Amino acid sequence: MKPIRIFTVTPSLPAELAGLRALAHNLRWAWNHDAIELFRRLDSDLWEATEHSPTRMLGSIAQAKLEAAGADEGFLAHLERVTQDFADYQAGESTWFTQAHGQADGPLVAYFSAEFGVTECLSIFAGGLGLLAGDHLKSASDLGLPLIGVGLLYQQGYLRQRLNEAGWQQEAYTDNDFYTLPLTLARQPDGAPLTVTVAYPGRVVTAQIWRAQVGRVALYLLDTNLPINRPEDRDITDQLYGGDLEMRLKQEMMLGIGGFRACQMLDLHPQVYHMNEGHAAFLALEHVRHLIELRGATFDEARAAASAGLIFTTHTPVPAGHDHFSPELMDRYLIDYARGLGLSRHDFLALGRQNPADDRSTFSMTVLALRMSAYSNGVSQLHGEVSRQMMQGLWPGVPENEIPIGHVTNGVHFRTWISFEMNQLYDRYLGPRWTEEPADRTVWQRVERIPTEELWRTHERRRERLTSFARRRLRVQLEQRGAPPSEIEAADEVLNPEALTIGFARRFATYKRATLLLRDPDRLLRILDNPQRPVQIIFAGKAHPRDNEGKELIKQIVGLARQEAFRRHVVFLEDYDITVARYLLQGADVWLNTPRRPLEASGTSGMKAMANGALNLSVLDGWWDEAWDMSDPRTAPVGWAIGGRETYSDQAYQDQIEAEALYDLLEHDVVPTFYERGANDLPRRWIARMKASIGILSPFFNTHRMVQEYAERFYLPAAASYRALTTNDAAGAKALAAWQARVRQAWSQIRVEAIEAGDLVELKVGGEIRVQARLRLGALTPDDVRVELLLGRVNADGDLVDVAATELKSISSQAESVSVYEADAIPCHVSGLRGYTLRVLPQHPDLTTPFQPGLIIWA
User: Residue 842 and residue 98: Cα distance in Å, rounded?
Assistant: First the structure.
């Protein structure tokens, strides 16, 4: 039965409570404890039942409770305090960005992501990638960075997890009711919804635009579930990461192409576009198409301009984690789009192929993003190294360490993840600057001022809350599964609120090795079931719907937890979400992470646990590889490292070695340190590690530092380059494109005719090398090229390694286009077998990197 008319019912708030509506519709409440307590104060049970959604709560709360709150002087005083704080925040003009870089006229950056994890009630995220995107928006808001977010609004979001009697993951999906969420439709002046269209084979698909306000930052989300679309097209924004590759392609077209068009429809014209993973890479092509149409430019001219303002962040070092589409699928969906760009089929597909000449290879969204972006980065120092190694084929001839993929290490938004109790502790002893300037090291040095007993008692309260929550959650799981009453009643006896508690919660991908700790069950049981030093483990996490190997890992853990010997010590919590994450991160003593190095790009759960006082026990991978080097493990240990930095070709052998190392650490260091108590029952060595972890790591592993780094290293330089190339009818971009075409045509004419370094056979340490080179440049000039001498060590294979580049200067031009280059004296400070070579690169003031054109000549 269909309605003949649709309308919206909104809550009837007493006039005294009118401010609740504005608070509910801005997601800033998600990282403001006082605002959360205000809504919880209205009806704490309903707050939980509505999954912490103020808008849904206000739409379903009993009118009598609203009337009572409107007459409650205490509640009204609380409301006034929160409302004033919110108004001051929104009006804030002394933010980091305005103080450092001045007022901005409109958005500087558009941040595109397939998922955004801002808060639990807006279920459009799957895991770490989305939570990072949500934290990015929150820090941008706090810092006053003029940024907008762009994504998709999924009708069903990501899967809800249920385990059957056998412990096998089953998936369920729940519809999001957009009209009870903190969302508003973007509308035209006549009130009609604002829409964008994207061409698909044989039809056009329409999407409407919703807006979620995240503090000072707007998040725009596209929704195709409209009657005007075909049923299969209404499903484009149905499930996050649902469906097959064809559905993934349709979603990524809507995100990239539709998202860019939404910015134009909203009259928002950011100078910089940041692609959070390759899902949004089609926006690069749409940006080019828009400039072709707007400026009357060629593809190469428009590409030169668009690329200057494009930034790409990759999040996975696992090849299978990158989206690839077959040539046939690309033909079906985008061949007409390619023609609109003025590209042949071959040239269009070459943009997404590592080897542009291979007509059989798939189209990679990561390759497209890397080719089109002026700036690219991984999300940790190690991940940057791995990404350069993976993508070396895109820059043939460029040494691995010079591949133009840098890194910006991830962080977390502290106010979102730190518990209310720890928040109060930090306010009391660190002062308010820990929330405003968390990247300031001097703030975190004050952690030593926190009384040892107060820090420990605060943490113990959080562990007790975690234990209580886990018991309740486990009981509900068993009831839903139809377990016998005896098993349900036994749920109240699992876990010990005073025992050493290990947390392990993340996506159940096989490389994360969730069952590494289970390799020797007998040894594990001896660790857990020690009456004097009990230990317990709480697991949580979802496997991808099509990842049967990941589901098998969950089944193994659940099977172990059901054994009588382990039942009180091992718990698996179903349906891992932000609520479960908060309890675990805020209550665990140890945060366990066991990825197979170097397959963890970054990982952020350990950062959240660290900020709450938990100690990390992790393989040296992702962020922990950097964190470990920030302190001296002998004098200021911040946690524990499982193994060293070794990698093994035999994965089974690696698993065995690192499982043994993990057991050894637990038996001989972690557990004894936790239970080593003084006369006042305080584990002083453990608390010293907590303080070292918080004080040393917090200033770096936060999103305020991360977003500031993106702004100053990427956003602002990219915006300046984009402005320079697009002013005066894109004269700069047209000149750059013409220069690139001229250089490409003449590049093969370059010859290195001679290199002279005197009679260089042996040199004493401290001696100097003087080099002169003669080059034939053909149709090019010395201004078009950069000539560099690379000096380094010669390894056993005769290859140059550990090289340092020195630029040679043009000192004269001779007849027949021969130029002479010379380097200043280069000192040699290290003994051993050394060598040098020479290379020629293109040079232009508007190139972000000389490797951008993909041209290089070696002597």
Answer: 37
